Amino acid sequence: MLPVTMLMEQSDMTSRSSPAIVVPAMSEMERSPEQDGRDFANAAWSIPSYLISGMIIWGGSGWLLSRWTGVHAFIPIGILTGVVLAIYLVYVKYGR
Amino acid sequence: MKAAATLLAAEGNSPIMPHLYELVVGVFAFLFVLIFVGRILTPRIQKTLNERTEAIEGGIKKAEDAQAEAQRTLEQYRAQLAEARQEAARLREEAREQGAQIKAELREEAQEEARRLIQAAHAQIEADRQQAFAQLRGEIGRLSTDLAGRIVGESLEEEARQRRVVDRFLEELEGTSQAVR
Amino acid sequence: MSALTVLAADEFKAPGLELFDFPTLWAGAPFWLTKPVLLAILSSLVVVGFCWSAFGNPKLVPRGVQNIGEYGYMFVRDQVARPFLGKDADRYMGLLLSLFFLVWIWNLMGVVPVLQFPVAAHIAFPAVLALVVYGMKIYLGMKHQGALGYFKNMMFPPGLPKPIYVLLAPIEFLSNMIVAPFTHAVRLFANMFAGHIILAFFSMVGFWFLFEKLTPLGAPVGVLGVVFTIAMTGFELFIQFLQAFLFALLAAMYIGGSLHAEH
């Protein structure tokens, strides 16, 4: 993978050939509207991923628990916990 | 559908399971594109785009310079024009003043000349009169002597006495003419 | 399907997974030389050929193919790279442009007459690209944030009571390390897979009821099939572009997230 990643990233030589003109335009992008847009996009794309992950992790834990105890209710409880935690995680990362 | 399922089972491939050979082909297909497009061609177009930005900015700069130059020239021209106008006005004024001065001088000169001529004429006239008067006095004296000699019948020999008599006569004459006047 | 069987004398069979199984190109060809492989190679050649004619000898004043190529470049730069990578955008344009063009051409193969198979409908191809991006994401994350810092920034958003991390960190890890790359590949694959089935279904309806078994009752269904084939082809063109765009966009997002820790 390493030589491949070296290929992806252009060497400093070529990126330096993009001179000062690009940089001021870019530095403006670091400001709030762009940053907000980026955060919004990140959040929007993260939510499904977090929801799935939450359901797998805590639904899976519930499933194990139900296998161990024989109480089937742990499966839906686990899945719900996962969903709630995922939403909370999105709030923590992007909502505050 | 069932046939498809059996076919699937027979070949042991599900759509979510990648074929190994396709993974290998995919890697090479991507590397091929990445090397040519990503490593060789993208830097080229980036370079061109940057050069274009520079060229455009340079062009704008050049145009601005040209405009400034034109503006400068225009102002210079205007200043020169204004200066020329001022100069012309000044010259005209000067000429008028000079003309007036010349006219005044000429008039002065002419008057002077006239005065001088008149004076000369007066002097001439006076001189002529004096001369005429003196000549007349002599003439009258001689004539009167002649006349008196003839009338009296005797020659008045003595010059001095003769003159005295004439002068006296003339003075009397003058006094009467003055009184008449 | 029962409604269709009533209309047709013989049974109409809707296309299924067999659409995605290909024999070798000719009998006796090497086992790996199938239509998707051929199309994948062809796509790479098309992309490189196009980019070479567009960017091979770029002019300051663009004309012809260079204009089109620049549209593509500007689109990827302004819509994909800059919003997520900011000042690092130019560094990764090569990768993102390659991804976008290659995926788009792969997808377009689905509507090119005769070829008619979207390469990305075989999961191996999107998986390769997603794996490459995944590898880059981890490599760059460790390079820019430190091996430990990368995982710490990822799994432990600051300012929470410690016990909460026990609940959240596994979700973060699973989401970033497994679900995200998986959905990255599967989103593209599933869209192309479903699109290909839909197109195949409608065109088969049209073919079956208008050519194979032309009946007075079936003819309108066949016409409808043709109309839907055309409409869905237009829709697929849009989806193909959209998925190529999203694939590149997510790649930029993952790379951007690795370059700078969130908050």
UniProtKB/TrEMBL annotation, chain C:
- Sorted UniProt keywords: ATP synthesis, Cell membrane, CF(0), Hydrogen ion transport, Ion transport, Membrane, Transmembrane, Transmembrane helix, Transport
The record's subcellular locations are: Cell membrane; Membrane
Q: How does it sit in the membrane?
A: Multi-pass membrane protein
Database matches in InterPro entries: ATP_synth_F0_asu, ATP_synth_F0_asu_AS, ATP_synth_F0_asu_bact/mt, F0_ATP_A_sf
Query: Which Pfam family, any one of them, does this sequence belong to?
Result: ATP-synt_A
Query: Which parts of the chain span the membrane according to its record?
Result: 37-55, 92-115, 121-142, 163-182, 188-210, 217-235, 241-261
Q: Supply the PROSITE patterns for this chain.
A: ATPASE_A
Q: Which NCBIfam families match?
A: ATP_synt_6_or_A
Q: Which family does it belong to?
A: Belongs to the ATPase A chain family.
* The protein's role, per its UniProt record: Key component of the proton channel; it plays a direct role in the translocation of protons across the membrane.
> What name has this protein been given in UniProt?
ATP synthase subunit a
Task: Tell me which species this is from.
Answer: Microtetraspora glauca
